[in-house]
Amino acid sequence: MLTLALLTLPLLSVASIHSRHQHDHAHNIAKRLPSPQWYHEPDHPVHELFRRGAPTDGVTYAAVGSDGWSAPYPPGPPASPDVKLLPAAWVAALNDAIARKAIPDIPLSTNVSDGGSPVYPSGSDPNSPQICSATYQCRIDGDIWDAADGYVGLSFDDGPEAGTASLLDFLDQQKQQVTHFMIGSNIIYQPDDFLNAFNRGDDIAVHTWTHPHMTTQSNLQVLGELGWTIQIIHNSTGGRVPKFWRPPYGDSDARTRAIAKEVFGLTTIIWNQDTSDWSLDESPPGTTADKIKASMQQWLTGPKSPGLIILEHELTNDSVASFVAAYPVMKSNGWNVVSLAQLVGNNASYQNSASNSGPVIAADVLGAKSIVASSSAPTTSPSGAANSGSNANSNNSLVSAL
Ligand SMILES: [Zn+2]
């Protein structure tokens, strides 16, 4: 029962913050959760961590971009979120997963050189089944590296960032939707770009709070990097819980992907082709527009099996320009060009709602496995607590004692 009480704390604090700032309507969420879709695994612990009922989740969220909206979150990089300030419910869920032996007890890696790959202690094989590091190209069953044959699954990392506005402009022209693996702390700084991406129907996924090499992070640090990013997406999209995350630098292993899956229900997505477009604006540049063009030409005129998941970024106008240049090549070579999360999520890019962008492939697979009727969903929602919002001091409840 103690755990149950603590589980309500993050929502309580959000509701109370809103009660003090509910006239800050500088921003609006155009799309609310549709009803009655609620179709992630009903017994998954994420249900308890990010609750919602139906037809909405019963919570009035602070307006995106308002002071009350941004107040509950930890600072951005370079410091990673303080593990002493993690909501107790997340920590309890992690401890439960550890007790179930669902989180492998393996060594952390360390960053030995700037820009290099993290390394494990001597005697630990990163390609062993126990560790299976994606940095070392070890693939774990259930993680996603490839798209379906004939498809390009579009995604962009690191937003919202300097290239987001130009990317969205182009996507609007093309009537094209994509997945954004967003950095949680960046959403704080660019709420308008975040909302523009969401409101146009793009899929929002997790790219951590401060963008570390995740295999270097302790279990609690991994919890914070993922949890805070899920929380801000949840609180900024009318209650959606993202379904996918991409580890920064593609650095994940058996431990970090297990925390993502077992605590938060997140599936790990890597990629099978890398443009290195992040390095276009480095000094000196790591790659050039011409090199990316040549790579794209090769990939897009090559075999269509497997389909392509190409690592691209919305970091700068230059990285976006490389995508803009490649887009007609994707189309002219007969690829099906779709949002990555829609493609690999069987039309469901969130764990608890239909897509906010409409059907991309086939609508009939939507929620086929475990739709729970809307009438039963509120049993998981502490609606009384969530709606009360009367305790102005409950903001402190986010600072949970460990
Ligand atoms: Zn990144």
Automatic annotation (TrEMBL):
Record flagged with keyword Lipoprotein: yes
A molecular function (GO) term: chitin deacetylase activity
Disordered, as annotated region: 376-402
Occurrences of domain NodB homology (ranges): 150-338
InterPro entries documented for this protein: Glyco_hydro/deAcase_b/a-brl, NODB_dom, Polysacc_deacetylase_ArnD
Swiss-Prot/TrEMBL catalytic activity: [(1->4)-N-acetyl-beta-D-glucosaminyl](n) + n H2O = chitosan + n acetate
Listed GO biological process terms: cell wall organization; chitin catabolic process; fungal-type cell wall biogenesis; polysaccharide catabolic process
Membrane topology: Lipid-anchor; GPI-anchor
Keyword terms: Carbohydrate metabolism, Cell membrane, Cell wall biogenesis/degradation, Chitin degradation, Cobalt, Glycoprotein, GPI-anchor, Lipoprotein, Membrane, Polysaccharide degradation, Signal
Enzyme class: hydrolase
Cofactor(s) of this protein: Co(2+)
GO cellular component: plasma membrane; side of membrane
Signal peptide residues on this chain, from the entry's feature table: 1-19
Cellular localisation: Cell membrane
Cross-referenced Pfam families: Polysacc_deac_1
Annotated EC: 3.5.1.41
Name of this protein: chitin deacetylase
The species this protein was found in: Mycena metata
